[in-house]
Structures are given as structure tokens and as C-alpha cells.
Amino acid sequence: MVGTVSRLCRYPVKSMLGEDLDVGDVTFRGLDHDRRLAVVSCRTGKVASAKYPRLWRALLTLSASADQPAGGEATTDGVRITLPDGAIVKSTDPDVDQVLSALLSEPVTLTSTPPPGASLDRAVPEAVLADGVTAEVPAEIIEIGAGAPPGTFVDFAPLHLLTTGTLDRIAGLSPRGVADPERYRPNIVIRTTAPGFAENDWLDRYVAVGDDLILRVIARTPRCAVPTLAHGPLPRDADALRVLARHNRLAPVADMDPEPCAGVYAEVLNPGRIRIGDSVFLV
């Protein structure tokens, strides 16, 4: 046993702020209603992501929550998006694209269907640190969902796991003395007594959560510029990435170059329900 589930999060619209859950159902595609919608650029056809801050950092001023009737499952497209001024627009509203295009200053459309070969621009993190979030910096094109079943907008794999040991280690190395979990956008935060970046050693291991859920860790999570950005009321924090660049730079998988990492990606081998307080076992 390596710990217990201390936080459960989903992000109904990619790159927007998400919502905390007490309980959720996990399928082969991940946590119910996680990253089921995304904003897509009408100019380029690429998925809009705060990984390229110059264009899309304003996505992190929006928060999304899935409409879920009492005792029922979240609807396919029923998502409420809260704007910076507190106004709410629904994903099913006829003018949602116009509202988002005006806020982002780019023509966009909100969709639940990933375009063929769905991709996004990922700014070189070190360039963002050096030149700032408004600079036009080099970027690589990333095809999303390579480690997940089709139909969602996850970056790579269905689930992202992060331990409190890693958060505590980042906080201890940061000048602020704080590590905000929201900056790293995990699905499952695992409370553990293991020190440091414990999940670095979980690659290719199996993780059992609660009664039924079985996962396999398939990669360490490389960090982009997103943790450094303002997240709603949280201000910018360049050290959220600098600490990892200095103290936890390693290959996400064996054949990749080292990158700043925090947390791990996992695929779902056996679906199940997950709850706050569930025991987590490493097999």
C-alpha cells in the first residue's frame, strides 16, 4: 500500500480549470467526463491548449463543470463554463463559439469530436521561462492521445497521477514554499508518506485503487509551461517549472530525452469506481 486517494479532479474542457469530485467512474477512456470537450482553432484546425501560452493562456481564466443530474451520469456535452466575470455559458448554447472566440481573441469552436490526427502546439518550456508568456517562442506539434483510446482530448494517457510526496518536495525546493496541485492538473492525487518524487519509480508498475480499478503506469509526466501560468486566482509562478527542471529532469519513457517531470500517466486495465479515501496499492 502506497497511500490513499486524497483528491479527485476532472477537466471537462481541455485546458480550462476543472472540478473536484468525491467519487467518479473510471472507464478505459479515463475519469468520467474528463477532457471530453476541447476548443479548436478555426484558423489552424489545432486543439487550443495553454501549452502555447501566447495564444491560449486565457483558457485558464475559465472553469468547466459537467452537468450531472442528481443520481445520474454526466451528459455527453452538458458542460457549464464559468467566464472571468462570473457569467456562465453552456456548451450546448447556440452562441458558445462566439462567446469563446471573443474572450480568446481567436476564432474557435467548441467540440466533443477530436479532428483526425488531433494535434496541438507545445511551446518549448525553457523558451517560455526565458522570454515570457507573451513571446512568440519555438513550439513542437504534439499529436494528442497517443496512449489512450480514441474519443477524448487527453494529452497522452487516460489518467494522470500525482503524489503528495512530489508536491511536498516541489514546495520544499520552491522559494514560495508552496506547490499548488492545480498547476499540475492531476486526475488523482495520492496521499503518501513516501518522500520526494516517489512515482518516478512506478514506470511499468500496476496500481490498484479501491475495489476494482486497476491501472498500469506507462510514462512519467513531462511538464510544459502550463504550471508557470496564472490559474484562475493563482498568480504566475515560474518556479513551478524551474524546480523540476533543476531537480527532477528525467526521461518520460526509456527512449525519450530528459525533461522536467512530475507525476505519471496511466492506462486503465480494469475500470471501476474511485472515491476519496480509497486505498492505493502498487503491484
Describe the protein's architecture and organization.
The protein has 283 residues and is an alpha+beta fold. The protein has a single domain, classed as PK beta-barrel domain-like (M1 Pyruvate Kinase, Domain 3, Beta Barrel). It contains 5 helices and 19 strands. The strands form 5 sheets. The chain has a 7-stranded mixed β-barrel with strand order 1-13-12-17-15-14-19. It has a 3-stranded antiparallel beta sheet with strand order 4-3-18, with no helix packed on it. The longest helix is centred in the middle third of the chain and has 10 residues. The radius of gyration is 18 Å and the shape is globular. The model has no long low-confidence stretch (mean pLDDT 94).
Could you write a compact summary of the structure shown?
This protein is an alpha+beta fold. It has helices at 53-56, 96-104, 125-131, 164-173, 239-247; strands spanning 3-10, 19-20, 23-27, 30-31, 38-41, 63-66, 79-82, 88-90, 108-111, 119-123, 139-143, 159-163, 188-191, 206-209, 213-222, 249-250, 259-270, 272-275, 279-282. The protein contains five helices and 19 strands.
Key terms:
5 helices; alpha+beta; 7-stranded mixed beta barrel; 283 residues; M1 Pyruvate Kinase, Domain 3
Class of secondary structure makeup? alpha+beta
- CATH architecture label name: Beta Barrel
CATH superfamily: PK beta-barrel domain-like
Cross-sheet strand order for the largest sheet:
1-13-12-17-15-14-19
Overall mean confidence score, pLDDT: 94
Rg result:
18 Å
Shape: globular
Question: How many separate structural domains?
Answer: 1
Helix content: 10-25%
CATH class designation: Mainly Beta
CATH topology: M1 Pyruvate Kinase, Domain 3
The end-to-end distance, rounded to whole angstroms, is: 9 Å
Low-pLDDT runs: none
- Following the backbone from N to C, one meets helices and strands in this order, namely EEEEEHEEEHEEHEEHEEEHEEEE
Count all strands and give the number. Answer: 19
**Beta-strand content bin:** 25-35%
Largest sheet: 7 strands, mixed, barrel
In DSSP terms, counting alpha (H) and pi (I) runs of 4 or more, how many helices? Answer: 5
